[in-house]
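Field log, afternoon session.

UNIT: design team B
ACTIVITY: writing a sequence onto a fixed backbone
BACKBONE:
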């Protein structure tokens, strides 16, 4: 639903080749008129990137990309981020992760992963810039993805809270986030993805706007006791994921989403019969830059 928001032509961004339809007053826009299996010229690429920065979440409908085509689309915007050892692709495309509720026999398992709020790869020294997620097989209804706008969440905080957060660093830990869902990492996995500290109030490297940077990978706050730091993180996450800061994407077959991990949290909604219906998506991530 467009909520009465007007469609822009991409000529507003210096390129007449596609249209941008805002999907809410908070974030998200549908990009109309592009075939992502074909490479962009420079003007189109730059216009898409500007829409990505403006709306944080872009929706491309009706796409049907092979794995190589999705990788090629992603690489137009930067360097691909490697996945953790547990999530690496199992075939010739290790930089493409298959997000799936299927078991080893290819049948629906009843389990949906990534249902807690997070920012992809936030435990890396260079947290992910963007995630590209392409719907391959979806249930007839449900299996939505939720997004929370960390710009809006930060801006809604009282000035006293913003002052408290200034200079605070939060440790993001893949090990802790796996423990929270009952999985213990091997020593090899720990070495592959060690924890890293990032500003809790993070300045976006391209827009200059400040957002909260937390989610399920956020472990504790430097300079605070573990218990007090955890409590503050959970308090801020509860604030940041209130309905007024969130957007729900209801998937259609062929949808491809591109979102900014630097200012959004996301999670899968298990609002479908995961023991009956398959839900399969292809995920690529773009490497970000060090935080300051």
């Amino acid at each position: 639903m467009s909520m009465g928001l007007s469609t822009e032509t991409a000529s507003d961004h210096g390129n007449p080749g596609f249209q941008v339809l805002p999907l809410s007053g908070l974030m998200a826009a549908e990009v109309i008129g592009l075939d992502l299996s074909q490479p962009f010229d420079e003007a189109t690429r730059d216009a898409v990137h500007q829409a990505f920065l403006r709306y944080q979440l872009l929706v491309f409908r009706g796409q049907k990309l092979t794995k190589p085509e999705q990788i090629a689309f992603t690489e137009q915007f930067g360097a691909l981020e490697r996945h953790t050892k547990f999530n690496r692709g199992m075939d010739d495309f290790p930089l493409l992760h298959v997000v799936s509720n299927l078991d080893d026999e290819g049948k629906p398992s009843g389990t949906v992963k990534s249902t807690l709020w997070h920012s992809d790869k936030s435990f890396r020294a260079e947290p992910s810039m963007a995630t590209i997620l392409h719907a391959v097989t979806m249930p007839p209804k449900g299996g939505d993805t939720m997004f929370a706008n960390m710009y809006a969440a930060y801006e809604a905080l009282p000035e006293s809270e913003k002052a408290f957060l200034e200079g605070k660093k939060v440790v993001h830990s893949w090990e802790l986030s796996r423990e929270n869902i009952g999985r213990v990492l091997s020593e090899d996995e720990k070495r592959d993805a060690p924890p890293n500290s990032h500003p809790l109030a993070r300045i976006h490297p391209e827009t200059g706007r400040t957002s909260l940077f937390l989610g399920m990978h956020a472990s504790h706050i430097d300079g605070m006791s573990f218990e007090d730091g955890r409590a503050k993180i959970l308090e801020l996450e509860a604030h940041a994921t209130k309905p007024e800061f969130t957007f729900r994407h209801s998937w259609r077959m062929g949808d491809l989403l591109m979102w900014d991990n630097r200012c959004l949290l996301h999670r899968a909604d298990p609002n479908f019969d995961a023991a009956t219906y398959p839900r399969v998506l292809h995920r690529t991530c773009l490497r970000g830059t060090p935080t300051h």
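LOG NOTE: Residues 85-89 have pLDDT under 50 and may be disordered.
NEXT ACTIVITY: expression trials, pending approval
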